[in-house]
């Protein structure tokens, strides 16, 4: 099999697709099959754009024949090829597939592929705003299907990106929602201190000292074990340093925490934002 063969199949498919009339069903079916074969050959040759284009044409033929489930899968195949070289085209193909899945009431599958869109925005296009929106939509669909764990996973992504975009209220809301929903879940209780820590850092970064103190107290009420954790003590130490406008106290608290619990890039960024605000008392309530 060669690219030349794939090119020939595309020409044959185009001819059949363009000669459709009142009784075009068989021709559309043949065109769809030829486009799919061409897409497969292009894929083997690593001609990613050509492969995606061929699959999309096959999907269009399947839609004309009312074969919506097949068309959705073909658009998904197109997205996999496009992702190698044309991430935005991969998103477009997935959006077409998702539209079909939603129409068919397949919300779980739609959510999964909406999550794929979010990942492309996150890792390929480096667009946190769009990725956050896509994860939020996926979370809604997962929640509607009672896929709670998957919904929470997407919500945590939304919270993480919202904080990076300084949308602290949104981040706090998401972190606290997942934490509250996990209080009575024995499998998730170990994660509570992490969620509370992240929500607390968002509170402090927002510049509202009173709200931050109230939040830490509320977290201790929600989970009676949180008050004895290093995460809770760390939040209290950071708050004290911010309230006192003491950069040295802040730095010492961060170094002490990091020695036993290595800070990740997200927490480091949040802490830098907080450190830069110390001394700017006009931002504190």
Automatic annotation (TrEMBL):
<keyword id="KW-0931">ER-Golgi transport</keyword>
<keyword id="KW-0813">Transport</keyword>
<dbReference type="GO" id="GO:0005774">
    <property type="term" value="C:vacuolar membrane"/>
</dbReference>
<keyword id="KW-0653">Protein transport</keyword>
<dbReference type="InterPro" id="IPR011990">
    <property type="entry name" value="TPR-like_helical_dom_sf"/>
</dbReference>
<comment type="similarity">
    <text>Belongs to the SNAP family.</text>
</comment>
<protein>
    <recommendedName>
        <fullName>Alpha-soluble NSF attachment protein</fullName>
    </recommendedName>
</protein>
<dbReference type="InterPro" id="IPR000744">
    <property type="entry name" value="NSF_attach"/>
</dbReference>
<dbReference type="GO" id="GO:0019905">
    <property type="term" value="F:syntaxin binding"/>
</dbReference>
<dbReference type="GO" id="GO:0035494">
    <property type="term" value="P:SNARE complex disassembly"/>
</dbReference>
<dbReference type="Pfam" id="PF14938">
    <property type="entry name" value="SNAP"/>
</dbReference>
<dbReference type="GO" id="GO:0031201">
    <property type="term" value="C:SNARE complex"/>
</dbReference>
<keyword id="KW-0472">Membrane</keyword>
<dbReference type="GO" id="GO:0006886">
    <property type="term" value="P:intracellular protein transport"/>
</dbReference>
<comment type="function">
    <text>Required for vesicular transport between the endoplasmic reticulum and the Golgi apparatus.</text>
</comment>
<dbReference type="GO" id="GO:0005483">
    <property type="term" value="F:soluble NSF attachment protein activity"/>
</dbReference>
């Amino acid at each position: 099999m060669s690219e030349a063969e794939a090119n020939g199949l595309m020409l044959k498919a185009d001819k059949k697709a363009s000669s459709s009339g009142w009784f075009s069903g068989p021709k559309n079916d043949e065109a769809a099959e030829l486009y799919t074969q061409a897409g497969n050959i292009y894929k083997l040759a690593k001609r990613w754009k050509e492969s995606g284009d061929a699959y999309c044409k096959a999907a269009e033929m399947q839609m004309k024949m009312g074969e919506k489930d097949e068309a959705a899968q073909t658009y998904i195949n197109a997205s996999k090829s496009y992702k190698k070289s044309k991430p935005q085209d991969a998103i477009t193909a997935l959006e077409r597939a998702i539209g079909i899945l939603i129409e068919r009431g397949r919300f779980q599958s739609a959510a999964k592929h909406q999550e794929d869109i979010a990942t492309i925005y996150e890792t390929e296009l480096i667009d946190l705003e769009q990725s956050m929106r896509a994860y939020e939509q996926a979370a809604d669909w997962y929640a509607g299907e009672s896929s709670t764990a998957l919904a929470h996973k997407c919500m945590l992504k939304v919270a993480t990106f919202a904080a990076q975009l300084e949308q602290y209220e949104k981040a706090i809301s998401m972190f606290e929602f997942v934490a509250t929903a996990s209080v009575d879940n024995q499998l998730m209780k170990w994660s509570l201190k992490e969620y509370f820590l992240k929500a607390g850092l968002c509170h402090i970064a927002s510049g509202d000292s009173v709200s931050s103190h109230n939040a830490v107290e509320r977290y201790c009420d929600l989970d009676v074990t949180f008050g004895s954790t290093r995460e809770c003590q760390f939040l209290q130490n950071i708050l004290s340093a911010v309230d006192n406008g003491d950069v040295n106290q802040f730095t010492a608290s961060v170094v002490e925490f990091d020695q036993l619990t290595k800070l990740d890039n997200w927490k480091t960024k949040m802490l830098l934002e907080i450190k830069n605000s110390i001394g700017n008392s006009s931002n504190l309530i």
